[in-house]
Amino acid sequence: MRLIIEARLADSGTGHDVDGVLAVVERRDCSLAQLGLTLAEGRSLLEKVQVSTIRQREVMLKLSQVRRLVASY
């Protein structure tokens, strides 16, 4: 048996996944002592969350710029 921990980003308004699964951490022995993340796993997850958040903000910024351009015509 395996314990699988998934990390996802979800839109706060809709609850839908923004970027799908960002990370999967498996614990093969299902030990509760190993339930948390190691420092390396935590750093890796944080990096993925930051990249995803920046990517989503860039998309929203570009959408707002396009809307302003369309509205100005």
Structure explained in plain terms:
The chain has one domain (3-72). The mean pLDDT is 80. With 73 residues, it is an alpha+beta fold. The chain has a two-stranded antiparallel ribbon with strand order 1-2. Helices cover 47% and strands 26% of the residues. The chain contains 1 helix and 2 strands; from the N terminus they run E-E-H. Strand 1 and strand 2 form a beta hairpin.
Briefly characterize the structure.
The chain has 73 residues and is an alpha+beta fold. It has one domain. It has 1 helix and 2 strands.
Defining traits:
alpha+beta, 1 helix
Tell me about the largest β-sheet. 2 strands, antiparallel
Spatial sequence of strands, sheet with the most strands: 1-2
Strand content: 25-35%
Give the C-alpha Rg: 18 Å
Count the DSSP helices: 1
- Kindly name the structural category: alpha+beta
Overall mean pLDDT stands at 80
Helix content: 40-55%
Unreliable stretches: none
- According to DSSP, the number of beta strands is 2
In whole angstroms, the N-to-C terminal distance is: 60 Å
Q: SSE order, as H and E? A: EEH
What is the element layout, followed by pairings?
Layout: E1 3-10, E2 17-27, H1 39-72
Antiparallel strand pairs: 1-2
